[in-house]
Specification:
With about 80 residues, this protein is mainly α. The protein contains two helices and no strands.
Length: about 80
């Protein structure tokens, strides 16, 4: 393989990733604009989404607390096994 082919391939990859970042940023901007337009036009499910999001946060908090307890017990068990 010639050195200039490898160099060109690397540059093309860098250009492609740069383009991908620009496209992703543009896509996110378009998504935000669409949600604003949806609210202005009369999308009626904001309250339902808000209540569902609150329920999700409560469930995830309970899961995280249980996970922390389990990890603490696991660490304690490992330390007891290491001591023995």
């Amino acid at each position: 393989m010639c050195w200039y082919r490898a160099c060109a391939a690397g540059r093309l990859g860098a250009l492609a990733s740069l383009c991908m970042r620009r496209c992703c940023i543009a896509w996110l901007g378009e998504l935000v604009r669409r949600s604003c337009v949806g609210r202005q036009v009369g999308w009626k499910h904001q309250e339902a989404v808000k209540t569902l999001e609150e329920a999700r946060k409560v469930k995830s908090s309970a899961y995280y607390q249980a996970k922390k307890k389990l990890n603490a017990l696991r660490a304690k068990a490992v330390s007891q096994v290491d001591e023995a």
